[in-house]
Amino acid sequence: MRLPDELREALDVELDVRGLGRMLGVEPVGGGCITETGRLRTSDDRDFFLKWTTSERHPVGLFTGEAASLGALAATGAIRIPEVVHVRDGQPGDRAEDGHGRWLLLEWLEAGAAVEHTWSSLGRSLAAVHRQRAEKPGWASANFIGTLPQANSPLPAWSDFWRERRLVPQIRRAVDGGFLHASDTARFDRLLGALDDVLAPAESEGASLLHGDLWSGNLHVLRSGDPVLVDPACYYGHREVDLAMSELFGGFDRVFYAAYDEAWPLEPGYADVRRAVYQLYYLLVHVNLFGAAYRLRTLAALESTGF
């Protein structure tokens, strides 16, 4: 595939400065549902995973936020995370950079196939990631879920954080986009008013480091069968959020859940109510990213909460 000339020139300079050789080419690869992705080959016989954009519709800070999340997960030592080689971006709220483009350059990890060991290792490793704690839910800076802004300013109570930082912004966006009706928002209001009680078990468990976007597309498996987590949107929150997201679109083997539960059992009530409350955030995100096709499933999840 051919990179835009200015982007290629800027990458060539960066590779030279870092002593990584000369770019030989970029082959398209899967995994880039938001931005472009490719396998970058160099004259030093090294490969890298490249994500890039030259489009102003991709918010500035997208790659910076992902790099920070990757670094936080890697620092736990609990699971393999691709090393960040270089990021060229900005902070959320900055103006889009010039036509040279923005990118995230990661180590290349050859893909394999999932086996039973993959799932048991992932379950134990995710529980270990969740053992990394913070005093309050939140994160040091805003980041993104897909291309949508994700506010992370800490709040003392988890129910307040889930209401004000997660559900309310997405509900407002969906209303403004014409995807939710007045009758829908009245039902959401009943749930929002009950969150203190519904999410009470989370307060006693405290805030865990979360991947933040744990669906099957963000699990990479090495040739050894070992799991790797990619494309995170980290913050500190209730550990069940990651598990709820993993169940939303499927693709995770039952061995994963059994291994997680053995390492750190869940409190009663997760499957009855809290799972759907957490999945609502991601369903609303899909409504706002992809349109009304997700509206009925979102309302069905709301119905399942009893509100």
Blueprint of the fold:
Elements: H1 5-17, E1 23-28, E2 36-42, E3 47-53, H2 62-76, E4 84-88, E5 102-107, H3 116-130, E6 133-134, E7 143-145, E8 148-150, H4 158-176, H5 182-198, H6 200-205, E9 207-210, E10 219-221, E11 227-229, E12 235-237, H7 240-248, H8 254-263, H9 270-290, H10 295-304
Antiparallel strand pairs: 1-2, 2-3, 3-5, 4-5, 6-9, 7-8, 9-12, 10-11
Helix pairs in contact: 3-8, 4-5, 4-9, 7-9, 9-10
Number of strands: 12
- Relative strand content: 15-25%
Helical run tally? 10
Helix content: 40-55%
Overall geometric form: globular
What is the arithmetic mean of pLDDT? 94
Unreliable stretches: none
- Based on helices, strands and strand pairing, what is the structural class? alpha+beta
- What is the chain-wise order of helices and strands? HEEEHEEHEEEHHHEEEEHHHH
Largest sheet: 5 strands, antiparallel
The radius of gyration over CA amounts to: 20 Å
Give the end-to-end Cα distance, rounded to a whole number of Å. Answer: 50 Å
Strand order of the largest sheet: 1-2-3-5-4
Q: Assembly state here?
A: single chain
